[in-house]
Amino acid sequence: MNPGLKLLLVMLIALEISFTQSLIVNVILIAVSLIYILLHRISFKALFALVFWPLFPALGLFVSQWLYGDAGIHFAWILFTRIYAYVFLGATFTLTSSITDLALTLEQDFRLPSKFAYGVLAAFNLMPKITEEIKIIKTSALMRGEALHFWSPELYFKAILSSIQWSQNLAEAMTSHGFVEDQDRTHYKIIKITTLDWALLIVLFAAVQAMLYFIRY
Amino acid sequence: MTDVSITHFTFHYPKSDVKVLNDINLTFHSNHFSLLSGPSGSGKSTLLYFIAGLYPRFIGLDATGTIKFGDTDIKQVPRDQVSKTVAMMFQNPNQQFAMDTVIHEMTFVLENLRIEPAKMDNIITHALTFCGIGNLRSRVINTLSGGEKQRVALACIVAMDPPVIVLDEPFASIDPDSRLDLLHKLKVLQTEHGKTIIIADHDLADYQSLIDEFYYLDPKSHQISLLDAPSAQKFFEHFKSTQTINKRVPLPSTSDPAILNIRDFKLNPHHSILLKLDNFNFYKGKMTLITGANGIGKSTLFNALTKLLAYQGTISYDGKNIQKIRPLNYAKNVTLLFQDAENQFLNITVKEELDLSLANKFTEAYSAEDVQGMLQALDLTGRDNQVVYSLSEGQKKKLQIVEMLIMNPPVLLLDEPFKGLDYQSLQVIVGFLNDAKNKFGQTQIAISHQLSGLEALIDYHANFKNQNLTYQEVVK
Question: Which GO terms describe its cellular component (chain A) (predicted)?
Answer without folding.
Answer: plasma membrane
